Amino acid sequence: MNRFFCALCLLCFSFLSYGQNAVLYPTAIPDSEQELRALKQQLLSTPAAQRTQQQWRQLAIVSISLIDNADAPEVKDATAVLHQALTMYPQDAELMAVQGSLFCIQAGSRKIDGMQAMTLANKGFRQLDRAVIMAPDWLGPRLQRAITAGRAPVFLGKRPLAREDFTYLISAVPATPETQVLRAMLLYQFGELSQQDKALASSLWQQAASLEGGVWSERARGRLSP
């Protein structure tokens, strides 16, 4: 399990901010490492006391997205960011969910034993569940849980939860020109999770590939290539 959760932190999300309907979308960050690092520096240039709640969310998500392994120095940095953010906004469900994902990333450390890893993973999922219960209509916390559950070791039994969350997310995001990137990401990730069912995975990737969904549509097309 220690190495499995490391893959979680390699995901970079690229979302748009939408003002339509009553859907609460995930916080927006870019999808390339270069852009992520630039955004992080921009956010850090604002004194902590002057950062808005949305800026704290962005900084938290950027910080865990830049972690390339569970023992990287960025883990300590992300931990500090989330501690500060949750001290200021202890009831922010998206920040809580990001912290839950971070606990699961930390479970991948090679410096801890299996018992410690299991404790961290369970702590992470409890935090993710709490965040989703607190804000069931906010897609950000549920997305964090979907991705984390989908990449958890099979023996933790989280795959059904991931499938349930991805199904909900895909149904909750309306199919509009503005949501193509987000929908492509959800369809692509659900396809990755569904590879044991080749027909389902192929169908999901085909849907993602048909969208103007940036890197996610490109990845889906790559999956469909012979």
CATH superfamily of the largest domain: Tetratricopeptide repeat domain
CATH topology type of the largest domain: Serine Threonine Protein Phosphatase 5, Tetratricopeptide repeat
Proportion in helices: 55-70%
Mean pLDDT equals: 91
Structural class: mainly alpha
Beta-strand percentage?
Answer: under 5%
Q: What pattern of helices and strands is seen along the backbone?
A: HHHHHHHHHH
List the uncertain runs. Answer: 2-20
Keywords: Signal
Task: Note the topology.
Layout: H1 33-44, H2 53-65, H3 73-88, H4 93-106, H5 114-134, H6 139-150, H7 159-172, H8 180-193, H9 198-209, H10 215-224
In short:
This protein has 226 residues and is mainly α. It has ten helices and no strands. The chain has two domains: 8-169, Serine Threonine Protein Phosphatase 5, Tetratricopeptide repeat; 175-226.
Provide a descriptive summary of the structure in words.
It is a single chain. The chain is mainly alpha-helical and 226 residues long. The protein has two domains: 8-169, Alpha Horseshoe (Serine Threonine Protein Phosphatase 5, Tetratricopeptide repeat), CATH 1.25.40.10; 175-226. Helices cover 61% and strands 0% of the residues. The protein is built from ten helices and no strands. The protein has helices at residues 33-44, 53-65, 73-88, 93-106, 114-134, 139-150, 159-172, 180-193, 198-209, 215-224. Helix 4 runs antiparallel to helix 5 (114-134), helix 6 runs antiparallel to helix 7 (159-172) and helix 8 runs parallel beside helix 10. The longest helix is centred in the middle third of the chain and has 21 residues, at 114-134. The protein is globular, with a radius of gyration of 17 Å. The two termini are 32 Å apart. Residues 1-22 form the signal peptide. Keywords: Signal.
